[in-house]
Amino acid sequence: MERNRWYKDAVFYQIWPRSFKDGNGDGIGDLWGVLEKLDYIASLGVTGIWFSPLYVSPQADYGYDIADYKAINPEYGDLDVFQQVLDGAHARGLRVIMDLVVNHTSSEHPWFKESRTSRDNPYHDYYIWRDGGRDREGNPTPPNNWDSLFEGRAWEYEPAIDQWYLHVFAKGQPDLNMDNPAVRAEVEDIMRFWLDMGVDGFREDVITFISKVEGMPSDHLMVPGARGLRFYENGPHVHEYLEQFRDNVLSHYDCMTVGEAPMITPDKALPFIEEGPNQTLDMMFTFEHMCADCLFTDYVPLPFNLRKLKGAFSKWQKELDGKAWNALYIENHDHPRVVSRYGSEAYRVESAKLLAASYLFQKGTPFVYQGQEIGMTNTHFGSIDEVPDVSAQNQYRNRMASGAKESDVMALINRAARDHSRTPVQWSAEENAGFCPAGVEPWFAVNPNYHGINVAAAEEGEDSILNFYRKAIALRRELPVVREGSYKEFKRVSNELYVYAREMEGQRLLVICNFADHETLMRPPAGYDPSLGELRLGNYDDAPGTRPDGFLPLRPWECRVYVYE
Asked: Any catalytic annotation for residue 205?
């Protein structure tokens, strides 16, 4: 019997709980705040919520370091209020998926606390412990030269047992040993716990990292900062382990999974997500389109390159077509705000709407990140002390140690830090942007531009970014061609225009986006005369037609969506 692939008709809203809405007045976002805003979320036209981690955590990486997989962080609430949120979401037609973070735990997890006490402890093999060596002075040296992606070297020494544990992220995020069947059984138990509660699926964090190459040799090919990555980014047993989770747990529930996969390409993704008997994930979050201004990470900045963005979009659309399903996003908790990055703060409203149109009409399931729908922008950090993120702190230390000027390092942090997307959601022009009560200090500084950029103001404006998102989401759900149609890109060599069509028998759609702060002339693609189509969406009040010379004039950051029946 064919699976119910309900996620193909879904649009998800991502909540990073700490910064969404403070409902109990302590300055930290929580589940009471989510409960308060469920009607708002539903009003967007989305059909699902993805929660970034809500679990008990010491917050070394803001929830992606889990100390208890079956309990809610007390700062956010408890299981009772989570059940209220879950029931309230379901009552509004909203599915709910949770973040599943099983490449690593927190170093405060009871499993890890036990594992570091003795080599003979039953939990010792839950993690990746290895013997190291000694230098000429007799000091302990790590088992290999791998780097942590967040915090120095990938190994941390435990004197009590004279061994090193692996952490490919922060020191407080020791990697689980997924080769241990007992660990895989624990993962299955965690999945069942939440699915039995009524959760509708999981976003699986760095899931392609869970299997490491046997022997874990030193890496002499990768540049410092990423050494070792090629030995675990798509490890030898990852498919085997995901098949086990699918067969033993996921196949018994009406649920969906979307995996996060840094460095993944379509050819590597298809073995996970190609529809058929071997499929282990429903969708994959990729990173290629988020590298249109960087190389591998946001901390190697390059000028924004529209052709690079378009190339990534089109590659995934074409190579997955008829085989697998795309996960679509342009913002999440791991990236700066997209308006500040790929758009224009000078044309904030126009470019935010254009960016929405650029991805919402592609084939796949869209995800919208909190605050994206009102065009929130990057903030400004005066010093590294204002930036809590472990990744930014690591970049700062490394660059300062290499002799860089602090002003240059802070300029980079202000361009690229993940914390830009983690400032509190701006609900109103009231004190603290309505995120928490007046007189209460929010856990993280609110972007000072909240007086003009906030949900309440956007609700009042018919032509606001917020209402554009509502219209765009409603339109994509209305048109069969968005779900079923083929994808075709035009103007591929243009450095200013992104133009694509969606086509099926009986209906076609054309999306035009001018990524420039000046007027651009475009000759419409053959068969797509604007005068013969219905303009269903645009970000200007009017839409001048084709000039006598055959060119269509497009204003700065203008987008249009035409439908042809």
From this structure: yes
